[in-house]
Amino acid sequence: MGSYDEVEIEDMTWNEELQVYQYSCPCGDLFEISLEDLRAGEEIARCPSCSLYITVIYNPEDFQEPPPDAGKAPLPATPAPVPVQ
């Protein structure tokens, strides 16, 4: 059995509490895919209540983790020693 549907990430809802994108499943529950899964290149959102799944259409570059230094202020340059006369 193939994917139930293809859904753009923009059409999904972000659940801040669970840290997952969600989309309504015909069974009444929600398809879910986590931010971690998206960053790993996963494109399948599964429904926890039935066997259906959807393919999520998104740009993986939009979900890459920022580099470890991102958002940190650059370290100030160490002042050169001043000779004492």
TrEMBL record:
Alphabetical list of Gene3D superfamilies matching this protein: DPH Zinc finger
Family recorded in the similarity comment: Belongs to the DPH3 family.
Keyword Repeat applies: no
Pathway entry: Protein modification; peptidyl-diphthamide biosynthesis
Location of region: Disordered: 63-85
Protein name as it appears in the record: Diphthamide biosynthesis protein 3
Organism ancestry: Eukaryota, Viridiplantae, Chlorophyta, core chlorophytes, Chlorophyceae
Pfam families assigned: Zn_ribbon_CSL (PF05207)
Species the sequence originates in: Dunaliella salina
PROSITE patterns for this protein: DPH_MB
Keywords: Iron, Metal-binding
Keyword Calcium included in the entry's annotation: no
